[in-house]
Specification:
Glucose Permease (Domain IIA), 336 residues, 3-stranded antiparallel beta sheet, 5 helices, alpha+beta, 3 domains, Alpha-Beta Plaits, 8-stranded antiparallel beta sheet, elongated, binds zinc ion
Length: 336
């Protein structure tokens, strides 16, 4: 048996292969309402990618498996959703488009064909896809890891914090529709307990190497409108342990400068900081504490870091580069 995976995330078959009532239906129809990505059923080379005819928006992929040529057909895709062009190599499970209703189609569905040999107009090589689908790799389940990552060169991507359970669940559902690598979710300790009942985010699985993590972050950000952040898996794990009831007091911190009471000096310092350390998030005047002999006091803050040890490391780096004093402050989290 050959390894073809289901070409979408639902297995709801609404019309089977060459049935009595549809003897010339040379594929299967898979349909479900909503947003459904279409996956390359096996690794291969794109042999057709266009939007004409009864198939509507359509992709063909040719596969060479153990010396046998196969070809898969994905028809009626959503307008504008085709992601690959003729000649491109695709991996099994790679998203090539989105389920749609283009061409001769009476409702959103994927018409999927499998040919043993190449596709031809008579469909003489078509076989029943349901005889071949289903040898599928298990998707990773949403779970909290129980073992500590052992390698420092692993990264995850995390979403920003969500403050609303409904929007979180919608986001997570949509992410899982497109990417299977959502591994766990983590509640975040409320700093302002009175104002915020809970805060939550999700994390992807581990990726080895920072470049891979950056590429995956880019892919996520092009797919979704939310912010994503790269985190070190090990550090992230330690934070997670806290959130699960451990003893460490890991929360967010910023590093702030001392107060400046001279605008020119302040501006120079801020520019220098920005040029050497990009993450200056905001500036704050401090006139509430203005003394009579001062007409101005200003400071600026870095971006926030997770955990007191990371804040201490940042402070010490800043102190080595600049002559001013820096202080660690607990960051107030605002909505992301
Ligand atoms: Zn069909």
């Amino acid at each position: 048996m050959t390894n073809f995976i289901w070409p979408t995330d639902t297995k709801r078959v609404t019309s089977e292969f060459r049935t009595g009532s549809r003897p010339d239906h040379h594929g299967v129809d898979i349909a479900e309402s909503g947003y459904h990505p279409i996956y390359a059923s096996a690794k291969g080379k794109v042999t057709r990618s266009d939007g004409n005819g009864t198939y509507g928006q359509c992709i063909y992929i040719e596969h060479a498996i153990n010396g046998q040529t196969w070809e898969t057909v994905y028809a009626h895709m959503r307008d504008g959703s085709r992601r690959v062009s003729v000649g491109e190599q695709v991996n099994q499970g790679e998203i090539i488009g989105v389920m749609g209703n283009t061409g001769r189609s009476s409702g959103p569905h994927l018409h999927f064909e499998l040919h043993k040999g190449n596709w031809n107009a008579n469909k003489s090589n078509a076989v029943d896809p349901l005889d071949y689908l289903g040898i599928e790799e298990e998707k990773e389940e949403l779970k909290i890891p129980t073992e500590e990552p052992s390698d420092d060169n692993y990264y995850r991507i995390m979403s920003g914090l969500f403050f609303n359970m409904e929007s979180f669940e919608n986001a997570l559902k949509r992410l899982k529709e497109v990417y299977t690598r959502v591994v766990y979710i983590a509640p975040d300790k409320p700093i302002l307990e009175e104002e915020e009942g809970w805060r939550i985010r999700f994390y992807t699985g581990q990726m080895q190497g920072h470049n891979n993590a950056q590429n995956f972050k880019k892919a996520l950000e092009s797919e979704f409108s939310w912010n994503f952040h790269i985190v070190d898996s090990k550090q992230d794990y330690e934070n997670l342990v806290y959130r699960r009831g451990g003893e460490s007091e890991e929360i967010y911190y910023r590093v702030q400068t001392g107060l400046f009471d001279n605008v020119a000096y302040y501006n120079n310092a801020r520019d220098e900081l920005k040029s050497k350390y990009g993450s200056v998030i905001y500036e704050a005047s401090d006139d509430s504490k203005l003394r009579e002999d001062e007409d101005l006091r200003l400071r600026f803050y870095t971006g926030r870091v997770m955990g007191i040890s990371a804040a201490q490391a940042l402070k010490s780096r800043l102190q080595q580069k600049f002559t001013w004093n820096f202080h660690i402050v607990e960051a107030v989290i605002t909505k992301e």
